[in-house]
Amino acid sequence: MLKKIPEETITRLSYYLRALLFFKEKDITIISSKRLADFLKISHHQLRKDLSYFGQFGRKGVGYSCVRLIESIREILGLNREWGACVVGFGNLGRALSFYKGFKDEGIAIKAAFDISENKVNKDYANLKVYPLEKMEKVIRKEKIQIGIIAVPKEAAEAAATRLAECGIKAIFNLAPVKLDIPKDVIVKDVDLSCQLTSLTYHLKLLEAKQS
Amino acid sequence: MLKKIPEETITRLSYYLRALLFFKEKDITIISSKRLADFLKISHHQLRKDLSYFGQFGRKGVGYSCVRLIESIREILGLNREWGACVVGFGNLGRALSFYKGFKDEGIAIKAAFDISENKVNKDYANLKVYPLEKMEKVIRKEKIQIGIIAVPKEAAEAAATRLAECGIKAIFNLAPVKLDIPKDVIVKDVDLSCQLTSLTYHLKLLEAKQS
DNA sequence: GTATGTGAACTATTTCACAGCT
DNA sequence: AGCTGTGAAATAGTTCACATAC
After folding, report:
1. Which domain covers residue B12, as residue numbers?
2. Nearest C-alpha in A relative to B176
3. B16 and B104 belong to one structural domain
4. A88 plus A184 within the same structural domain
5. Of the candidates B104, B110, B105, the residue with the CA atom closest to the CA atom of residue B90
């Protein structure tokens, strides 16, 4: 717990958690780092090293208890309790995130969505309420929301982020293709789908060059 | 061009490209690495180092020509021509990706979508045709599609990937939360939204611990 | 003076090697 | 024998320092 923990390690812990849930579902009680790592296509050294930043979770000569490792990783990631999130922007992407089942499994509940469009607002979509932006502060306080997910067009992203920060949000998941300029005490995770997609064309180009 | 190029460099090139397009839009013709880097909140050393893997693009004492650097990065990333992509799974996420304008700006055109659902299929949505899975091979060949985007539920992802590979697709952008087990000559880029989101809760937990 | 380009220094991360437990 | 845990070695990636050009 003393050394600096790589950010990549944190991301991988989520992967471990999901894989473990998968194995638990299959009634596997004890799992080795090798098996888990093979499943995720990483090295078993890496897996054990990642875990070692946080403590000792396995038994030498045996392996890891699936259930107990799940519990431990949940605790490390803060997923042993429920977090409230809201989605800003109720377009296709906002909808996709709002209704994605996987978040709930991992302790993140989408409590509300916000949109500027008159005809999306004040409706219930499968237990989710969509509010106009003006209600943001009230809803965030009432529903105890700690995480904001930005799924608005890029022009509106900065304003959405500022608004979220003003409402006391300390963690933002930004899917808009802009670098947000907001106070640095707010934790921001950017996921830029088109930049990610673009890295594929680079490799495709190399592949074609190699073949010709 | 001889040294090994970090994968992160490739991703950052996409960011540079987008920022440059933004500056060009604002009629800025010459830009320094410092200004571009500040805008993207990275170090100017990093930016110059990244570019140096591919050649020399600036003028000492002056800076970079916006237009020429855009052209150069497009060439590096293979974005100076059009790539055809298809989306498998026409749920909310699939729709979001299908209609996202940003891809087209970057040379990636979504040519078709596929879905198993009877009532989504064989319809036109804003110039995009949604086909049943059986038509995949035919459509991919006809439309010269090189990139497959997987936006199906996790249970269906592996089959979708295998199918795409069988149709000759060499690059897959996988948004389903599973590690695909397909031939390694297929380039796969995984973007797992819920694992990314989860890394936020870890930092939120740390933040709370610090404050108490 | 200002800005790029790049080898060298530094830092971070991954992989290895092996001690220790079952 | 099989598996975890971890310091040490190796590798990868970032930052620095300075030579060069405008």
Report:
1. 7-76
2. A102
3. no
4. yes
5. B110
Chain B residues 122 to 161 whose Cβ lies within 7 Å of strand C are none
At B45-102, the pLDDT tens digits run 999 999 999 999 999 999 999 999 999 999 999 999 999 999 999 999 999 999 998 8
Whether residues A128 and A171 share a domain: the answer is yes
Instruction: For residue A39, say whether its CB is under 7 Å from any atom of strand D.
Output: no
Instruction: Tell me which chain A residue has its CA closest to the CA of residue B197.
Output: A173
Q: Which of A85, A93, A177 sits opposite B18 (nearest CB)?
A: A177
User: Is the C-beta of residue A72 closer than 7 Å to nucleic acid chain D?
Assistant: no
pLDDT tens digit sequence for A155-169 = 999 999 999 999 999
Radius of gyration of chain B (CA): 20
Same domain, A99 and A38: no
Question: Is residue B97 located within the same domain as residue B53?
Answer: no
